[in-house]
Design brief:
10% strand, 64% helix, alpha+beta, two-stranded parallel ribbon, four-stranded antiparallel β-sheet
């Protein structure tokens, strides 16, 4: 289990309130420092406990001037910290807890979903590489395109925003994801129009039909991405998994539109939609499993409404896509 150091700086008159609160959680301060008007408490905790302590500090002292909370990674602490009383304080109704706070999640995901020149440049470059790989039937080149495609951030930010009921972040994530996928389709369409005698390779044909395996892939990609993110694990391979679900079908959609093959373009569009739906549903489910939710009760209420609404909309979209796919003749086991 990874460790974190939480530093809580607060006015001296609130120190007793902090001590009473953390005692009820079964944790204790490792050491304290004093200045003229502030007391600094240091806590070394296992990662799932950090959110609980940060919530306490924010709730009790958000109106106290001078209060500050800092979370730092810890490489090693000896002896290893253990909760008092022998009970794991981070066990909460069977939830595993996250190794990263919701505040850190929000900051990281907003950075990953930022719509800027670098993001669009990476999308454009990955599109060119993907087109080359698909048209030449070169699997290694297609995988290389997915490595550089920056679609992990916007998708996870979209799921996180709907989980937390954060409308501003939802708008940012939707704008970034829409702009990125739009650029892929548009760029591939131009290349498909300009490419004489576009070959129908196995890599292209595979992205014009879908079945139950495509939905399972999308669900696994979204779920694994959130597990890695909340566990503070490396995200590179997970980012490739998310790009697998989005970049190739979006590229094939553009290529087929540019070549005038509307029937195959419809199949690629349905594959892209089913992947987006599966990614977001599974990501939301894992966020809920990890216990990611707002701190304030009014925000929790708004988040519950947001989750119910978006899950309902995603499920409705899934049913509609399945109906269209069945009529299209590409439904295989779904």
């Amino acid at each position: 289990m990874s460790l974190r150091m939480v530093e809580v700086a607060l006015p001296a008159e609130h120190e007793r309130t902090l001590k009473n609160a953390v005692d009820r959680l079964g944790i204790s301060s490792t050491w304290r420092e004093e200045s003229e008007d502030l007391v600094l408490h240091h806590f070394v905790l296992e990662a799932p406990l950090v959110q609980r302590l940060v919530d306490i500090a924010q709730t009790l002292f958000e109106h106290a001037p001078g209060t500050r909370v800092t979370v730092l990674p810890v490489e090693l602490a000896l002896p290893a910290p253990t909760p008092e009383g022998g009970k794991l304080a981070f066990e909460d109704n069977g939830r595993t807890g996250a190794g990263i706070t919701r505040e850190a999640l929000r900051k990281q995901l907003r950075q990953g979903a930022r719509l800027d020149a670098d993001y669009m440049a990476m999308v454009a470059l990955s599109t060119v590489v993907a087109v080359i790989g698909l048209v030449t039937n070169n699997v290694a080149v297609v995988v290389g395109a997915m490595v550089i495609a920056p679609f992990l951030g916007p998708n996870l930010a979209l799921a996180f925003a709907t989980t937390m009921g954060n409308r501003e972040m939802l708008a940012e994530a939707a704008k970034s994801l829409g702009a990125g996928l739009g650029l892929v389709v548009l760029g591939a369409a131009v290349l498909g129009w300009a490419w004489p005698d576009l070959p129908d390779t196995a890599e292209i044909a595979a992205r014009t039909v879908f079945g139950l395996d495509a939905l399972i892939l999308a669900i696994a990609s979204g779920g694994s991405a959130v597990v890695a993110l909340t566990g503070a694990a490396p995200m590179t391979l997970v980012g490739v998994m998310v790009a697998v679900a989005l970049l190739p079908p979006a590229t094939v959609l553009g290529l087929k539109l540019g070549a005038g093959d509307l029937f195959s373009a419809q199949g690629a569009a349905m594959l892209l939609l089913i992947n987006i739906i599966g990614l977001n549903l599974s990501a939301k489910a894992v966020f809920a499993w990890k216990g990611i939710s707002p701190r304030r009760w009014d925000e929790k209420s708004a988040a519950r409404r947001s989750r119910a609404l978006t899950v309902g909309l995603w499920l409705l979209a899934l049913v509609l896509v399945a109906i269209v796919a069945q009529r299209h003749g590409d439904l295989s086991g779904l």
